[in-house]
Amino acid sequence: MSPWFDRLKAGLSKTRNGLTGSLSSILRGGGLTGADLEALEEVLIAADVGAKVAIELVKGLSGALRRGDDDPIALLKELILERLAGSERPLSLRSDGSPSVVLVAGVNGTGKTTTIAKIASLLRAADPDLPITFAAADTFRAAAIEQLSIWAERVGGDLIGHRPGADPAAVVFDAVDHVIKRGGVLFIDTAGRLQTKHNLMEELKKIERTVQKKLGRPSDERLLVLDATTGQNGIAQAERFHAAIDLTGLVLTKLDSTAKGGVVLAIREALGLPILFVGVGEAAEDLDAFSARQFVEALFD
Amino acid sequence: MFDSLSERLTSLFNRLRGKGALTEDDVSSALREIRLSLLEADVHYKVVKELIERIRERAIGSEVFDSLTPGQQVLKIVRDELAATMGEERRSLSLESRPSAVILVGLQGSGKTTTAAKLAASLKKDGRKPLLVACDLRRPAAVEQLERLGEGIGVPVFKDLELSPPEAARAGLAAAADTLRDVVIVDTAGRLQIDEDMMAEIGEIAASIEPEERILVVDAMTGQEAVNVAVAFDERIDLTGVILAKADGDARGGAALSIRHVTGVPIVYLGTGERVDRLEPFHPKRMAERILGMGDVLTLIERAEEQFDGERAKDLVKRIRDDRFTLQDFLEQLEQMRRLGPLSQLLEHLPGGANLAGSEVDEMELRRTLAILRAMTVEERLNPSIIGGSRKKRIARGSGTKVRDVNRVLSHFEAARRALKSFGSRRGKGRFPADLLGAR
Ligand SMILES: Nc1nc2c(ncn2[C@@H]2O[C@H](COP(=O)(O)OP(=O)(O)OP(=O)(O)O)[C@@H](O)[C@H]2O)c(=O)[nH]1
Ligand SMILES: Nc1nc2c(ncn2[C@@H]2O[C@H](COP(=O)(O)OP(=O)(O)OP(=O)(O)O)[C@@H](O)[C@H]2O)c(=O)[nH]1
Ligand SMILES: [Mg+2]
Ligand SMILES: [Mg+2]
Prior knowledge:
The complex is a heterodimer of chains A (about 300) and B (about 450). Chain A is of the alpha/beta class and about 300 residues long. Chain A has 11 helices and 8 strands. Chain A has 2 domains: about 5-85, Four Helix Bundle (Hemerythrin (Met), subunit A) (Up-down Bundle); about 100-300, Rossmann fold (3-Layer(aba) Sandwich). In chain A, strands 3-2-4-1-5-6-7-8 form an 8-stranded mixed sheet, with helices on both faces. In chain A, helix 1 (about 5-25) packs across helix 2. Chain B has 3 domains: about 5-85, Up-down Bundle (Four Helix Bundle (Hemerythrin (Met), subunit A)); about 100-285, P-loop containing nucleotide triphosphate hydrolases (Rossmann fold, 3-Layer(aba) Sandwich); about 295-435, Signal recognition particle, SRP54 subunit, M-domain (434 Repressor (Amino-terminal Domain), Orthogonal Bundle), CATH 1.10.260.30. In chain B, about 55% of the residues lie in helices and about 10% in strands. In chain B, helix 4 packs across helix 11 (about 285-290). The two termini of chain B are about 20 Å apart. The chains are: A alpha/beta (about 300), B alpha/beta (about 450).
């Protein structure tokens, strides 16, 4: 191991000591020192909260802190929770008997296909008879259709897919057709696309337009799947996908990793989108409802 | 999303113009901005700290030379420091033994399988006989994905679903020897560095074939955890290289810098697209500029400096800053740019420029633009507002184009002039060449 990392580790534990230290200095009524604040800022930055939000939060903390407040970290957590107020929301499906459509999008490899399988198996567990349809609208990536069809089989649902390379909107056209006849829920699995790729973003818009045309209304959920290991680029991702298809919410995947997904705080501030689910593993059952409180606790783990 | 660091530094240094050297105070405020910028680029915060200290040492007392503003000067120091941290130019894979082996490892979804196919395609092009070996026997359709990719590039894929991943790797290597394939590329399942079982498995796979190259595939969009991930994989299988996948987006890729700085493992390639031909050598300097969010500006300035004589360069910078940039300058610029080298080569210096060069900016468009500019009178170039309908018709005729082409050049010029103005005052992101050329 490089000596540098030893230092890094030492530095990390110093950060923790720093936190404890600031705690005790507050207990002694001494207020937070500059070094304490910096240590807190670094904890947030290390969680991918981003320098800007981290600095704001720590400023807010030192402003809100009064003599005798015994736990600055608890206060900081409350400040973050305030920012996340209203961010929890369950999946919204139609209850009027007409089919529901869930469109899932995001950059490459974030966990879109797996997340669809997870949400579907949640629905399946709640209702063994619910018709579920999967639209294989990723016609680009090698074996993307096979991957979805394996999940469709495991969960129990119909797969609507064309040949590799086919027009994704045409797949969606057929899938909406199918779900109009069958009822239940349609999940649209789209190809990973970087938000900077104009043509691919247009393709995504076309997919949503196809749903609208066929169904006479927008899809019920348009979810962005965000990888928790993503850093500050997550902001651009959310903004550009939101601009393209007017997102209804986020799913934060891979929270079982060491990453905290702190970038959602900045996204929340910019776009105010709710976070429906978190992914916590590769299996179908590794999906939890987003809990703001748990998320905030984890930032400081 | 990223205000340019250049913008911040310039406003900081505006008052410094004409001063000889940077003082410690000047440097400290600049360093604050640099810190923010590096953090926005996802460089690990501990690495940022170290870098800032080094930059401080180098920046204090350094000369501010005439043609660039002090802000640019500091940026150059930062860029050079980052580039130095990032290590030497690319180091190609070393695959001497026959058959030799490459193993690709990393987090879930980072780009391993796609990269395996990219490497295979590139080795094949170099006259090698690669064999892809499927050792991700977990993720649904992972094997099929590798098979499809292999079919696409005409490289065989070894699989044996009965075996454990370490056994499959060994069997793959044996199969390569039997079938006269001279290099195996092993695709492994994605795994978290804290998943003890899976990390043990990767250790076993590596031990079973002793691959010459042990490559970590990292997503260019990765945040602060990149360092921990790299360190853990390095501890386990002693990495020989890193490939930064998905570098074709607008992520600034600070992860690359952090990983290199902390583990010392070199970055070998960038993945710059989903297609199997999108594998590019890694250039430390270019990456440093990208992390600073300004790959375009510095390199282009340097190149322009090499080409222009100093006086003219200074004059141009001044005209841009004073917003006196005319179509005449535009024409001269384009002609200069043509001399700087082929368009595609120039565009490589822009973030995402490699893609632009491939598809979006077309050489024809540049030629058309030049023809239109040349068909104008000097007076028109100096004062475009006099160009009315009949002049447009004349220019179109003279350049063999349509009036709408002339209109397009004029409106691109207007947009470019605005961009250049902010570039000149170090406010914009300096995207001017793409704008000038009518890139979409
Ligand atoms: N650890 C962990 N891995 C996950 C999670 N969600 C998905 N994955 C894994 O991440 C990888 C990518 O998942 P996919 O569902 O294929 O991602 P995708 O967004 O559909 O990928 P593309 O379609 O190629 O853009 C796979 O190896 C999944 O098993 C999660 O919550 N935790
Ligand atoms: N834009 C872009 N996409 C890439 C690049 N490399 C890989 N991808 C995409 O990223 C996604 C994940 O790539 P994979 O090769 O399946 O990743 P992996 O690491 O093998 O994933 P797991 O096996 O599930 O862990 C796919 O959608 C790829 O097409 C790249 O350089 N640029
Ligand atoms: Mg997918
Ligand atoms: Mg794979």
